Model the fold of this input.
Amino acid sequence: MLTIIASALFSIGHGNTFTTQDLSTTGFSVTIDVGSDSTTVDVVAPVDVWHGVGFGGLTMSAGTSASIYSGTGTLDTRYFDSTGMGTSVGSFWTVSNYVAGDTEVTYSMMRSNDIVKTCTECYVFDPTASTLEIIMARGTGLTFSYHSTSGDGNAAGYTLTEAEPTTTADPTKEPTTVAPTAATTDPTNAPTTAEPTNAPTMIPTIETQELFTTGFSVAISVGAESTTVDVVAPVDVWHGVGFGGLTMSAGTSASIYTGTDTLDTRWFEATGAGTSVGSFWTVSNYVADDTEVMYTMMRNNDITDMCGDCYVFDATAATLDIIMARGQGVTSLSYHDTSGDGNAAGYTLIMPTLAPTSAPITTDDSEESTTPSPDGGNASSAGKIQVGLVMVAGLFNFLWL
Done:
């Protein structure tokens, strides 16, 4: 029930989608969607040269933070307050749907609107703004360097406006009705039957796991390139979820919530406070009320190039080991008490698979297939999600602090 409520609330939000902007006729374009909590940019560009998009100004000297692509799925965030190379301030955009072909690269990049706590130079997106100033540039190779003058078509500033909403039918006009015609049947043609497919059409989500009956639960989706975790928890105590082990001494990287939408990533290889290694999860759909907090956290599966201690998610793995814990207060990480008190446990989650049904799909509406489905007719044509969960909840007396 908590997952259903969370999903419903996550779908509510306000924001603006701006018109797609091309950099002259270079083949580099961006489509920017500023949501209530996070911003997503869909990018299309030539694969053989670097490109960048900056926010908050029409020129480099205006003080803009730009995302630079130089041949990989890891984007460099650079701050510019004059012409030149600018200053690298980190890597804060989560990249998904990354596809690089022989001539073109496409991907989506997403981050929280306001990350000034971790990057003071980074632009703060405003979901209520009707315009957005950006700069776009590209180079002559994949190594970041001078882009030549804007007169060569390799750099320009743009003021984006909201995209026109999709038109809907006029409710004052009656719909046109098409007179039905009698269907004719060709007796020489037998009805065709579609073959079932084994290809999954969705990213499976691991069954929601709750920490005993504490109200703290996670639902994890491991995709081909990025992982998403939907979290529901009490708002008045800290909580954390770690990946890659069933105990702290196993060597786990954990995401810790302490009352804000900025999550602290900590590395544990023994009991204790662990070591803070940064903030790498992008938080969206953040909702906190008097009793409960809900949010979605997402990052790329492999970020070892910027965090050597962070867990690498494997979309092909059959299981996922996690640890969950919560404390007694929310403002700081503190001792969670023993696992016997219901405040900490380790779990081995079984990754779901998609299995096709054996029942054929007939394209002739006049006939129904008589082939029984192996589950008694409860499976759909897209396949039944088979999920399982093995809970390994020994009384681990491990500590967060």
